[in-house]
Design brief:
Largest sheet: 8 strands, mixed
CATH class of the largest domain: Alpha Beta
Bound molecules: zinc ion
CATH architecture of the largest domain: 3-Layer(aba) Sandwich
Shape: globular
Oligomer: single chain
Distance between the termini: 30 Å
Number of domains: 2
Strand content: 25-35%
CATH superfamily of the largest domain: Zn peptidases
Number of strands: 17
Radius of gyration: 21 Å
CATH topology of the largest domain: Aminopeptidase
């Protein structure tokens, strides 16, 4: 895994509906090595690698957005109140740094403070964290805050990626910057000649409800669809092995079913065959919860053979998402072998 490329991608602020900073990086990377690259009105980037003819139309997607907040009120002292986008546990927001994505003043740093422990009453200590009472301190007073920040500005978590021990790494937005990373590496390294037409889609607004991928699928109408996304790994203290769903370091997750999608059987068998032939570590994933772009890729066009490849991530949707490099490598190897092959949809 090229950790410096991943870090560069993960460090970019890319809230749902405001993916333009990451889109710029993606466009610069894919334009020199694709047959066709275009951006639709929603902001999805479609990068096409044409096959030699007679093959299937394959869509491979990863989402560019990340979980975020949105400014809903600026109070008379300049503090910013916000809503949550994409399933963030408010407990994870206490004492965190954030970046406000303003329209005209760029990224404005701020902090979500917590009342000092010395001053907490017993009742406050016992209480959970209510997102509605949290606010962002940018340092600006009311007059300046109103000039710089606007209601509706998204806010993303601010955290530098770091390597941990044991092949692990931590960052904000591993979900789904690992997917974007895998697609970019596959586009760069795939063989010139292959049978299928591959439509790489860098989708937008996944965390707001799979919006970009739905529109892109409707327009492309693929026969085969793969979503590369992060998924929660529960192999942490307090959990039982039978409840892990996926675990770090055990390979790429092949999602057979989650709360909204049953994977195509032909496609899952084909992917398992590639993993066995190429010695790519994989784990079968059956999840009672969760969803991803595979849901809409399966049904928004004319019915595609669809499956999600799920990179295991601990502490998902937080500032300290944690994943394993060898799982990302497994995802890369599987996607590379798949798009180079001749699976028929
Ligand atoms: Zn995701």
């Amino acid at each position: 895994m090229d950790f410096s490329l991943f870090s560069k991608l993960a460090g970019i602020a890319s809230a749902p509906g405001r993916e333009e900073l990451l889109a710029k990086e993606v466009l610069a990377a894919v334009k020199p090595c694709c047959d066709e690259v275009y951006t639709d009105r929603l902001g999805n980037i479609i990068a096409v690698k044409k096959g030699k003819g007679g093959g299937s139309k394959v869509m491979v997607a990863a989402h560019m957005d990340e979980v975020s907040l949105k400014v809903r009120h600026i109070d008379d002292k300049g503090f910013l109140y916000f809503t949550l986008t994409g399933g963030i546990d408010p407990r994870t927001l206490l004492a965190q740094r954030v970046l406000v994505m303003t329209e005209e003043h760029g990224l404005i740093p701020g902090v979500i403070g917590a009342k000092a422990a010395h001053y907490l009453s017993a009742a406050e200590k016992a209480q959970g964290v209510d997102a509605a009472s949290l606010c962002i301190d940018t340092g600006y007073g009311a007059e300046e805050a109103h000039k710089i920040v606007s209601v509706g500005d998204p806010v993303v978590l601010d955290r530098t990626p770091r390597e941990l021990g044991g092949d692990l790494f931590t960052s904000k937005a591993i979900d789904d910057r690992v997917g974007v990373y895998v697609l970019l590496e596959v586009i760069k390294n795939m063989p010139k000649t292959h049978r299928n037409d591959i439509y790489f889609v860098f989708s937008v607004q996944e965390e707001y409800g799979l919006i970009g991928a739905e529109a892109a699928t409707f327009n492309l109408n693929p026969e085969v669809a793969l979503a590369i996304d992060a998924t929660g790994a529960l192999d942490t203290p307090g959990m039982r092995p039978q409840d892990y769903v996926v675990a770090l370091g055990k390979g790429i997750g092949l999602t057979l079913s989650d709360s909204t999608t049953i994977a195509d059987r032909l496609l899952s068998k084909h992917l398992i065959k590639i993993c066995k032939e190429k010695n790519i570590p994989y784990q079968l994933r059956v999840a009672a919860r969760g969803s991803n772009d595979a849901k809409v890729m399966q049904r928004a066009g004319g019915a595609a053979r669809a499956l999600a490849l799920s990179v295991p991530v601990r502490y998902i949707h937080s500032n300290v998402e944690t994943a394993c490099k060898s799982d990302v490598d497994a995802a890369y190897n599987l996607v590379l072998n798949f798009v180079s092959g001749d699976f028929e949809g």
